[in-house]
Specification:
The protein is of the alpha+beta class. 27% of the residues lie in helices and 48% in strands. The radius of gyration is 16 Å and the shape is globular.
Length: 143
């Protein structure tokens, strides 16, 4: 493996971490360092929206805090498949996402989603950015 590919893998892994931290902490503007302005995001498998990044960012900022008061992603294995140009990569990252929601009786309960984040990352002047995300739900618990 070439040094450039090792650096690219690290930069993409950092972007994935920035994504989960932004979602978990509600720092929606930090998502600007993860996605291209024209990215398409598909959260339909978890009951969410499919739209362009600016609309999904606004949707997340409105809907996610209303749904869950606390979120904590864990990322696992990451698969990297670079295009011949080395300026694009298909990324698959395992995730586990427990969230705290209201139990409807004044308390809280934990629900959980596990699956695969399927990204298309592209090299930009600002670094690696996702231009496409499909959240593939493999399992849920507690819903």
């Amino acid at each position: 493996m070439e040094t450039r590919e090792l650096i690219d893998r690290t930069e993409i892994a950092d972007a994935l971490t920035r994504y989960t931290l932004a979602v978990d902490t509600g720092d929606w503007d930090a998502l600007d360092t993860v996605f291209t302005p024209d990215a398409v995001i598909d959260y339909s498998e978890s009951g969410g929206t499919i739209d362009a990044y600016p609309q999904v960012k606004a949707w997340l900022a409105e809907m996610l805090p209303a749904f869950s008061s606390k979120r904590l992603h864990t990322l696992g294995q990451i698969s990297y498949a670079f295009a011949d140009s080395a300026d694009e990569a298909e990324i698959v990252a395992y995730f586990d996402n427990p969230m705290v929601i209201s139990d409807g009786a004044g308390g809280e309960r934990v629900v959980e989603v596990g699956g695969l984040y399927r990204h298309t990352f592209v090299r930009t002047p600002e670094g690696w950015r996702s231009r496409k995300l499909h959240e593939q739900v493999v399992w849920t618990r507690g819903f």
